[in-house]
Amino acid sequence: MAIIEVRDLVKRYGDTTAVDGVSFSVEEGEIFGILGPNGAGKTTTVECIEGLRTRDGGSISVLGHDPADDSTELREVLGAQLQESQLPDKIKVREALELYSSFYRSPADWNRLLEILGLTEKRETQFRRLSGGQKQRLSIALALIGTPKIAVLDELTTGLDPAARRDTWSLIENVRDSGVTILLVTHFMEEAERLCDRLAVIDSGKVVAVDSPAGLVSTVDDEQRIRFRPSAPLDERLLLDLPDVCDVQRAGSHIVVTGNGNALNAVTSLLARKQIIAAELRVEQASLDDAFLALTGRKIDN
Ligand SMILES: Nc1ncnc2c1ncn2[C@@H]1O[C@H](COP(=O)(O)OP(=O)(O)OP(=O)(O)O)[C@@H](O)[C@H]1O
């Protein structure tokens, strides 16, 4: 069931058309990503969904509510991650949670949220004394405090180190597993690939594709490069005769096989039959980066 429906959304700022006919729907229980480069119109799109901006065209339905008319009802079902600058420096973690709880009819047990987010020990710490990762986790707690059905997370892991980023991803998967639908704005390919069930790729205010990460990758060339060092001499012609193999090259002590479809299986089966071990085996194939490049004609600028 679609929980969010966006149809032909248009938003202009003066002469700039930031969102130019965007359409997508988000199914209940999924992590849906909006992926695109800086300035693509991602934040403007979600701000229209959150009811924070007035659209110039199209329609939006969030659990049957139009954000343009029903902002009070919407606040009870949709939790939005705050931008860091929206909290005063001196507010304590506990105070922020108490304050935000007071906005909702049925707030979550925030002690439990702190526990899940690993912030219990920081209850009495001022916001300005939190690390980047802790601030991020607090903003997620505040997005979830109204027990929303949908959480909108914008640039969730920007500014976090790789370890904190991975922790945050696991956390978001847990939130989804608890039944919350997640709308995630990102310009990180790895984040999109790892977390999202489906993605809308947005470029210059337009949706250029909506699919799963794997679906997007499969639209680009499925060429694979299989590189390995054989543990014993191997006649290259045997590799070249394999189905789906198009090219075989020597690179010093390594062999590089180029193929598609089932080439990897064919190569590893041949090696197994010949009792040859493929040392330093590396398989390169198309990634979401390649799919993005194919869809938009440029690389995303991280
Ligand atoms: N308040 C505003 N007034 C005027 N122009 C704006 C405003 N907000 C955004 N824009 C412009 O609208 C376009 C889309 O911006 P938006 O912030 O939605 O993109 P984004 O994909 O979220 O980018 P980023 O990842 O950099 O946040 C950009 O050209 C931006 O400069």
UniProtKB/TrEMBL annotation:
Pfam families: ABC_tran. SMART domains: AAA (SM00382). InterPro entries: AAA+_ATPase (IPR003593), ABC_transporter-like_ATP-bd (IPR003439), ABC_transporter-like_CS (IPR017871), ABC_transporter_ATP-binding (IPR050763), P-loop_NTPase (IPR027417). It is found in: Cell membrane. Its main location: membrane. The lineage of its organism: Bacteria, Bacillati, Actinomycetota, Actinomycetes, Pseudonocardiales. This is ABC-2 type transport system ATP-binding protein. It comes from Herbihabitans rhizosphaerae. It comes from the Bacteria. Residues 4-229 form the ABC transporter domain. Keywords: Antibiotic resistance, ATP-binding, Cell membrane, Membrane, Nucleotide-binding, Translocase, Transport. It is a peripheral membrane protein. The keyword Cell membrane applies. The keyword Nucleotide-binding applies. Signal peptide: none annotated. GO terms for cellular component: plasma membrane.
